[in-house]
Fold this protein.
Amino acid sequence: MAKKTIKTTKTSSGPKRVVKRNSEQTKKQLENLALSIVKMAERAQDPAIAIPTRSLSNVSYNEKTRHVEMGSNKQSRNFFNYGQAKRFMQTMLVGSKCKDLIDMGKTASIRQIYYMSKHTIKGTKEKTFDDQAESDPIIEDLEVAIDTLREELHVFASNRGNLVGPITLVDDGNTLDCSAMGSAGYAVPSICEPDMIQFKKCKAKFILHVEKDTIWRRFHEDRFWQTHDCILSHGGGQPARGMRRLLRRMHEELKLPVYVLLDNDPWGYYIYSVIKHGSINLAYESRRMAIPDAKYIGVSSFDYDRCGMSDDVKIELDANDVKRAKQIANYTWFAKKKPWQKEIKKMLTNGFKMEVEAMISKNLSYLTEEYVPMKLKDKKQWLD
Amino acid sequence: MADQKLVEKSDKASQLTLGFGLGQTEPLAGSSESVGKKKAATKSNSKPGSGKAPRTRATAESMAKQQREISVSEFFAKNSHLLGFDNKRKALLTTVKEAVDNSLDACEEAGILPEVEIWVKQTDTDRFSVRIRDNGPGIVKNQIPNVFGKLLYGSKFHRLKMSRGQQGIGISAAGMYGLITTGKPIQIISRTSSRAVAHLYKLAIDTKKNRPDIIKDEAIEVDFPHGTEVTIELVASYNKGRQSVEEYIELTAIANPHATLILHPPVGATLDLQRGTDELPDETKEIKPHPYGIELGTMIKMAKDTEHQKLGAFLTGEFSRVSPAVAKSVCAKAGVTTATWVSGMETPVIEKLYRVLQDTKLKAPSTNCLAPIGVEAILAGLLKGIKAEFYTASTRPPSVYRGNPFQIEVGLAYGGELGRDRHDENPDEEKGKREPAQARVIRFANRVPLLYQQSSCCTFKSVLETKWNNYTLSQSSGAMPRGPLVILVHMASVWVPFISEGKEAIADYDEIRKEVKLGISECARRLGTLLKRKKKKSDFAKRRDVFTRYIDEVVEATRSITTFNKEDFRQSLIALSQNYTAAADMEFDDHGKVIKKAKPGNDLGLANTVVVNRDEETDGPEALFEDDAPKKVANVSLKQSKKKKKRRK
């Protein structure tokens, strides 16, 4: 498990790198979409794009794969619908920009896509996009509409999440030793597909994923990854696709177990759910990103008593927290897990939530030297 | 008949005396006596002063010394607020109003197209001289002192006929007010024809005796062939805006499009409102009371006073709409015959007869006693006086309250410049709330504008009770609707039930309120239809805008993804866009059904409605398109309800 030789795919290097991924097929799908719209107009039909629904109502939990999967519900985005006309136009606009990117063999960030697509409509003062918040979901819509992935559309997001640990990987042709990345660690890029990142060497035995940068720094400073031979990562809240993809690949290709340490609140529960089963919004990505064997090691609602915490760490639940907790408890993938039901119930009866930082209130090293080692040892305390 | 009315009058007077006498510290107490008649002192328990000082005991005799007749003039001199002279501002308005009302009545009765000229001059800081001249038939010399110098003297009280004046109080009260406040007598010049000599009178009123005091009486030469000129000097104040003389004249012009009204205010330009039609209102007739409206007591009284001897003749002769056949069947049901002697009838029989009459289906009272303004004249008046976009009017069929036929007319003016430059600023708007101002109600009774006591008026209550939200106007509960809206309500009746002698608000009879509400609903429904259509139209126009705006973007984007004939794609999208927004051109009738409409433009197919398209401000997304904003052409169309029926099939 410690050492592995990994087959690396060849990457072209040089000043002008041309990205070639599954793009030919994506390009074809884009063209088909465009043609179908032209056909509809020809037949005097309202041009429409069928977009699979990205909401709880259209996801299901596959017990076999243990993934959250997208259902077959589709929404029709029609051009001749007053409320949808603009978004229809925007979808086609983003589609055409992605087509350009594929043709040119370049990638662009979601922010760049926004700028590429934004212009003033001829003869008016109206802009095609007013805000990046408008274009981001359009990209996701396009992904599901033509059944492709953001990366295949040559679009990436900003880096989010860092990792540190005894692993050497090749990122865009550069070999990086992640145990020697200074205090900030390795910044995980948005695209972590095998053609971008290859694993070279790995001595780690497991992955500890924490919620936020601040906690990650605590572990890093205390050299937790050195003493425990692990990869230490964080996703800056809910992990972005890059981080999740990388975790999944390390888990799958390097056979590293994944342990997550999150805040004891509904938000933390959901982050765990996203890492383990996939997110509701990006359910179509679950098959590439979900890590069904990931374990939740803390913080648990029972830890307050178990660790003898002080009153000062309690944060009272507000109405929103209670509502969210109940929602999560009802998700099908949580509904049948008794320990989880107990855990959520306990939080509700506690009436308070706790951050991971709560453990630091005991003393600065309690978290890294006592709490997590204790948790890692005692499998019974894990939540699955 | 005349007696009956007299009694009614005296009842009224005594009620008034009673009602106010108790509240006053005047020596009125105990003397709840009517005008002209003296009654022996019966109850002498007058209210003594409620002081702590030792009481001086009055005897019946000592009190009897103080008990004496009160002249109606004396009473109103002390209670001039009852007649509309509460304050200086109102005094001026009431004076003008009474004179103008009289002039218009006189002209119409004589079949003359009225032309009334009013001069208001300031003679001192708070003194004004008001001169009103009409081209009416003039007044016979002998009657001038009585008409202008005596309260409750007139031609209009003793009859059931639609006219502006009712009691014969108004103009003499104005003269009296002038006399009390300035000491100046009322001056009257009247000429009955170009061959006759004009007479000038200066009159004071002897308030104790309610009779004129002639100060000057001479023949003079005037430059008008016939007519009357009244000059009254009074303490007053002149204002503009709401409840002003100007507003009164403007509103009078709306309700009287056949009259020319010229006002020379003390300051500012002359207000010259020429008549809009040469047609006089239909002549009105006096009528007999209708059985549905009278009370049992009245009927007993009528049976006692009638000149008819037999019941059949009494019923057909004294009542409206009782035909010989009806009289016969009514009598049969009541167990009497038409040949029964009226004088021999006992009260229970009359009561039986009364009940049968109430249960018998009778025709509504004849309507030729009423002269409604008429839909077209209302529209013409509104068009002339109010710059709105949408006008509609409705004349309700005549109805009856307390035996008096009446007819309600409603007009609505909406949009246009209403609510933009209004002289009464909406205080809410100043606070930053962008709520439109409340609608304005203009009220008329027998073509006379009512400017005061709006909130106690039956018509106003009816406006509040109307569910304006149903007609797409915003209205908070129990409040006026909001929007650029003017609501005109006119009540025409042989006897308008005012809640006070000042003639400012119509009493709240269920029958009247019901009719007003029906009239309002009818007009508001048309307004609602228009507003809904306008909204639908603008909604679809907006849609079309949006689609058109995005078509090129979609074409270009799609074309950059794959290859196809760009122009074909564009054309099919444009065709689709027009197809999907074609509903903008459709029209719906009041029941929401699609009407196949051939005529484009502003013809809405609504009865009795005028729509004037004024250039609208472009706002919102439409403002984005400077070049293709459609230019609207003013178009006025007047339609009759018959056409509407045809249209609906």
